[in-house]
């Protein structure tokens, strides 16, 4: 506000009009009041709130809320927070990473570097954990630096992945809260349940490394319902598809899965066996948003003239981008068909191809016979890329 008022003062001060002089005097008083108010607010703010605003771009309201914490409010100078920032930087965190850590957990600025941070980092490094892993651990779970169990839990996960530092790094990066969970009472029962359904340590590690943190966070009963559903759909525990299906729907509750199944039955006339059949071909059909399913299904049934039941055989069509794949490729097939080419091709066979292969098969051979085909395709895709 003060910047705006200053500009107005310069504008009015250059005029000799009496009316302008009146406004000029009013603006000067208003600006003085604004600056005085801001100065007063700044003086009333606890030091840590001012520090969070100036150093980490916190909003006024959030900084004020953070300062209500007794540990943060006790900070009266920049000495401790600056020592924390310097330590994090020396550990290997970038400016943006430090900013993200403070935004996620402002209380870290109250940690004692010599008594808390340095000993914990030294303990982990002495155990053979890399600096890169520590950076990721602090970045995604700074509270781990306070827990006495962090080392033992990281050692468990390192053994679990066979000492593979790359896999462990990915798991920590994608599942920052993993070291929060008690190993004996929380982690082991979930691992044992997944193993009962045929998942190996390698499978579970792969799930975690892909960011499926729900693998360790959800209730055992919820897991069992999902695993039973996958098996009930006719997918053997020892098949590779079982893991794919778990990745697809492992984050959902039994009720959510049943609601999605009911949606296909009531809206498109699918039977339960139809849903199971589509799920086995394309497990993500039960994890997609129903809005996406509706928009794709509307296009496929109204524009492409497919029967809803026929899509059970090609459920991947519901997962493709409507604007980037379904509409442009259907448009090309229509143009080719109207010019006497490719009369018996179906949309599915055109959509499963990569972009490069689609162009080679459906556009390049017909560029001379069907002028403008490539332009029409890329225009429909929303791209000006020439072929």
Can you characterise this structure?
This protein has 387 residues and is an all-alpha fold. The chain has helices spanning 2-13, 18-44, 47-56, 60-66, 70-73, 79-91, 95-104, 113-126, 131-140, 150-160, 165-174, 183-196, 201-209, 214-217, 220-232, 240-249, 254-268, 272-281, 290-302, 322-338, 347-351, 355-362, 373-381. Helix 11 crosses helix 13 (201-209), helix 12 (183-196) packs parallel to helix 15 and helix 20 (322-338) packs antiparallel against helix 23. The two termini are 53 Å apart. One of its GO terms (molecular function) is nucleic acid binding. This is Mitochondrial transcription termination factor family protein. It comes from Rhynchospora pubera.
In short:
Keywords: Transcription, Transcription regulation, Transcription termination, Transit peptide. This is Mitochondrial transcription termination factor family protein. The chain is 66% helix and 0% strand.
> How many angstroms separate the termini?
53 Å
The helix/strand class is mainly alpha
Helix content: 55-70%
What is the number of beta strands?
A: 0
Keywords: Transcription, Transcription regulation, Transcription termination, Transit peptide
GO molecular function: nucleic acid binding
Protein name: Mitochondrial transcription termination factor family protein
Family: Belongs to the mTERF family.
